[in-house]
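At your convenience, could you comment on the folded chain following this short note?
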Amino acid sequence: MKSAPWTHLLLTLFLLEEGCCQQLAPPTGNLREGSRAISPPGRDLGGGKRASIQLVPHNSAFAFDLFRKVASCSSGENIFFSPLSISTAFAMLSLGARDATLTELFKGLDFAKLPVEEVHAGFRYLIHTLGQLNRNLRLNVGNVLFVEEQMRPLQYFLRDIRYWYAAEAIPTNFHDPLAARDQINGYVDQKTQGKIPDLIGNLDSESALVLASYIFFQAQWEKKFDPRQTQEDDFFLTEDKSIKVPMMYRGGMYRYGYDDQLSCTILEMPYKGNATGLFILPDERNLERVEAELQKDTVARWKKLITRRSIDVSLPKFSISGTYDLKPLLYKMGIMKVFTEYGELSKIAAQHSLKLTKAVHKAVLKIDEKGTEGAAGSSVEAMPMIMPSLVKFNQPFLVIITDDFTDSILFLGKVANPAGK
């Protein structure tokens, strides 16, 4: 029997329109911002690993800050997004920004203390490393720029997004919005294997650029669930309201623990390959407190707290998605200028005045068990002769999916209602 695949699909979309503000002066072409300069392409990944080690904690800080912003306006709702996809897309956009807009982007992304080149070198290493073939899991990180056919982006901008972010630029006729929409949706549909077929509903004929960053992730549990043990059970949306959902079950050895300080249970469930799911189950009436304390230091403490022990795990089988208008969320994080006519994006195309008019993020998470009988006995665990604890995720919980090799947070979410969308 095959193990339960986890499929995570998302796309971060940025729509830039030509504005009517004053003409911006063309850049000098040396990729210099103040005293900070981005070296021209031609180097190998060299210091990329060191740069990524410096970058990842800042990506994590941004991830948890954004989660808290989403949670503050999503009480009782499911949450699911990829902070890495959002950071990657905005970091790529920063290659076209200058002056106060660049400073604001870096501060909002928590990159203010990092050299510009280190940020891009770190992302280049992450994209290259995460995209390596692995027979046990599929992880595809990609970036693409859809460019109005009549617009001429600066060559060094196209060169830099290709070098640092492996992004391709695709000519698009935005004067025919329906054809442009179909072209972009078709591209996204292909890259996400049909899971996000109609991301874009309408496009404006004044659109000039669509910038997209996506991640496709599919992995199998390291320790398999048996679908024959899945059965309907109660999931408590609140203390006095419950629904019936299919609950998967498995007994085994897991890294597990209880945080007395925050009153929550922590369970680590590894995948085959280099990925891990961290599940956090707050006690009743304690979800908001745990959400408020969710930060990289808290997660680091949890990982030191959990130990390997024999437990029985009961986890709901579900599919949820999240679609977010990032503009109001990023405003709260200090990223504003890029959305205005005063945003300095002249390093994208000097002859056009550009502003960011849309920032939409969509993510999908599916947990289920599929397969046939026959492979369930492929691994054997030595179990201690004691009665195992039962860890039952039958009320709202949090989930963090990380890449073990780079320690990057791929996905972050809250399951408030497994039957919700």
Observations:
- The mean pLDDT is 83.
- The two ends are 28 Å apart (CA to CA).
- The domain at 46-219+320-366 is CATH 3.30.497.10 (Antithrombin; Chain I, domain 2).
